[in-house]
Amino acid sequence: MTESLFEVKTRLKNQAMTLWTASHIPSQRGRTAVVTGTGGLGLESALALARAGADVIIAGRNRFKGQDAVAQVRASVPGANLCFEELDLANLESVEAFGSRRRARQGSVDILINNAAVMAPPQRRTTDDGFELQFGTNYLGHFALTAHLLPLLRKSQSPRVVTLSSIAARAGTVNFDDLQAERGYKPMPVYGQSKLACLMFALELQRQSDAAGWGLASVAAHPGIARTDLIPNGAGAGSASAFLRTFLWFLFQPAAQGALPTLYAATSPMAKGGAYYGPDRMGEMRGHPAPAKVPAQALDAAAAERLWKVSRQLTGVTFE
To answer: Best label site of 20, 24, 130, 272, fewest CB within 10 Å?
Structure first.
């Protein structure tokens, strides 16, 4: 039977009422969140968590940007309990030092959002430890950070680790024979590899937690296509990606909207460990949080376990 106009409007209204937004975040009072990244999605995530009452630590390598991020949050949330901490994900000593400081200063961490990233620099660059910049920053830095914060996460009653992937992971492959792109560097395929590795890590972390009894909920999320500084900061203002961002702006949703899958994964009672969330419309490019499709290559548990072991060797960290 064909729906009447009234029935259509009623159905759409009821559907809209079920769309998850930041207003649905439960109270986070008494919970401590670490968010990597000082702008874009990281800033929006920190802002929403502060509004919900969480104690927020914004972690990034640039002190000036970090202090500005703190000021922006406090301007919107007077009295917010947050601070900036220096953390350079492209330097494993910095990651270890951050973990040591946090373990010395606080009793637990309830939410870790592995968000910060670099995207598609035109020329191959390396981290301070000699890793290809995207793989080293986006993935290995967060892998090591999670390990260093694991003792604090395990002291939480309901710890969550949210790791940011990307729709670029769909075309990604993990090249175990050339993880650092030393034989050939192509910006976007290497970015896709780093984000696929992040997704595989999130799924494997849940398996490791279940096996070892860590009590973690490890969740993956992606923002769809969002208007942040990730493209111009990485590929450059004159790149084809930046051109698309400028002239096809209508395809890019606001950063606050892009942060919703992350926030859903970090706070919603409905979010599940081992799950993957992204936007619900236009092939997961924009919309409200919903379960995202996991690429087939991310479901290879043997490859994920191999990546875990290689990552431990490269970073020198342990999860015991």
So the answer is: 130
